[in-house]
Amino acid sequence: MTNPDVQIRINGRAGHITLTRPQALNALNHDMCTAIEQALDAWRDDPAVHLIILDATGERAFCAGGDIAAMYNAGKAGDYDTPRSFWREEYRLNTKLAEYPKPIVSFLHGFVMGGGVGLGGHVSHRIVGESTQIAMPECGIGFVPDVGGTYRLALAPGRLGEYFGLTGARMGPAEAIRAGFADMFIPEADWPELKNALATTGKPSVLIPATPPESTLPEDDINALFAGEALQDILNTLRASDSEFAAKALKTLQRNSPLSMAATLEMIHRLRSPSLDIRKALELEYRVSHRIMEHGDFIEGVRAQIIDKDRTPTWKHALDKVPAVDVSLLLRPLGKEAWTFEETGMNIAFIGLGNMGGPMAANLIKAGHSVTGFDVAGTTVEGARVAASAAEAAKGADVVITMLPNGAILRAVAADVIPAMTPGAVLLDCSTVDVESARAVADLAAAAGLGALDAPVSGGIGGAAAGTLTFMVGGSDEAFAIAKPLFDIMGQKAVHCGPSGNGQAAKICNNMILGVTMIATCEAFALADKLGLDRQSMFDVVSTSSGYSWTMNAYCPAPGVGPNSPADNGYKPGFASELMLKDLGLSQQAAEAADADTPMGQRALELYKQFVEAEDGKGMDFSAMLPRFEKRGRG
């Protein structure tokens, strides 16, 4: 998948991941995390990939953190779910990096902060150079060290974890190695040749450490000054010291969020045990992430440091007055909302992002699924990654959803995406097409080891946006079970109609009834007008008696009568007349193939054909048949 912020390729025997967002100090965003995770998943069992190289472009930073501004904007708007989703997925990526079965070599140059530590600080071989500056500065923005940072801080010797966690002090190469955030120092001038050797041999044994610059870390002072059980203990010790180092550390703590520092200290102490692993640390960190916007200083800290840059945050608590109950609130278990390693969302490819497909894809994104989109018109959906082709979008997807104009285009797209799909994935077509095309595509999918569903929809553009569509589904029970959670997001009802093609058959029969009924409803209103019967009276009688129908009661074609409908908006389409013409054409095509006598369906097709092609019906709602009949006499 193409992503301008990260370059992913195989070079010799190495999978090579390069962050390419130097203008933002290679700060991680959601798309970058997803792309990296997909690459790791693809290379895990690829025998051609012996190890992974992880590096970044630009001189200033490997990765200076996450996209904090985007999370601030979401939280400021009251959207806590979007940042939580990002943190869940980022923490899953951190876990995969730490537990990856193949060697990963990270080249950590320049600033390596926050999310950069999560990306390059847990892998098997962590290289630092002369420019390296590693830090966990989260307490300064009202957050806590996360992305597994507390795991590293809890493992650090002596009280280095408390010191680096509370102050956010930067570690040069020697300090990073000493604190356990890096493994070896190699001069940066040697890195290009070293990467070539790694790609050529596929062996991390080519890594030969050099002696790093001398550390100036005053470990004895740190162990003495940061040994307190609680934040107040450390503050008291720092204030009682007359050393320059203590004064500098105290000044830093006075700038940071008191609540964040108290929570960070408690987290390090809880995690410091023989049974510690990165998953325990990430689970504890997610408790804070989940609550930090509502109950912590995160929004105010980011505002002061990143957004307004006035550097004068108003923290919730004074430095010496952090209630233990507020720390406990951030750290208490989340119950059913707790972070787990399991992937809760699907990887979905969505082909066809028009008036129907776009809103459907948007609803899947809002529900936490990862969506990659492609549309020949270049249409995009906010939050979806953009692929250069349908086949590229389909690669690695759990479900490929198509929303296309007709059966011929469906067949062409299916021929393109099926070879790119992973066996066991599901091809879910939501287009309205002919039964023959639906069944032909299902046969191609089955031959490739894929599930296939034809699932045309009812409910129009409004239903697509509101997530209230009805799906008529054909295909296997197994494929339907996989797609059922997606139907629940995009619609209010999904009916499994039987084997492949039966979804299209149900849609065709349903819409033949709809077309015929709408014509009858419009004819009746036009007749009532000529007989002098008030339209409201007509509606009141028919909607509560044997003439009841959906076209009368829910989609009345008479303006100002019944519930609001396109008739009340100048007949701007909810369901366009040309689409009804298409569906009626499909019904008669199917009727001819099945040798079924459908005279009303045939006559409805003829009337809509005349309305769309010879009158003013194109671009109008299919209920605009009423003004057509109003103008016509019997001749």
Secondary-structure-derived class: alpha/beta
Q: Report, as a whole number of angstroms, the end-to-end distance.
A: 61 Å
Number of alpha- plus pi-helical segments:
27
- Specify the overall morphology: elongated
* CATH class (first level) name of the largest domain: Alpha Beta
Give the name of the CATH superfamily of the largest domain.
Answer: 2-enoyl-CoA Hydratase, Chain A, domain 1
CATH architecture of the largest domain: Alpha-Beta Complex
Total domain count: 3
> What about the largest sheet?
9 strands, mixed
Tell me, rounded to a whole number, the average pLDDT: 94
Helix content: 40-55%
CATH topology of the largest domain: 2-enoyl-CoA Hydratase, Chain A, domain 1
List low-pLDDT spans. none
Q: What is the strand content?
A: 5-15%
Supply Rg.
Answer: 31 Å
Structure description:
The chain has 635 residues and is an alpha/beta fold. The chain folds into three domains: 6-337, Alpha-Beta Complex (2-enoyl-CoA Hydratase, Chain A, domain 1); 347-500, 3-Layer(aba) Sandwich (Rossmann fold), CATH 3.40.50; 507-630, N-(1-d-carboxylethyl)-l-norvaline Dehydrogenase, domain 2 (Orthogonal Bundle), CATH 1.10.1040. It is built from 27 helices and 18 strands. The strands form three sheets. Strands 10, 11, 12, 13, 14, 15, 16, 17 and 18 form a nine-stranded mixed sheet that branches. A six-stranded mixed sheet has the order 1-2-3-5-7-9, with helices on both faces. β10 (347-351), α16 and β11 form a beta-alpha-beta unit. α5 (149-155) packs across α12, α12 packs across α15 (324-331) and α16 packs parallel to α20 (460-466). The two termini are 61 Å apart. The mean pLDDT is 94.
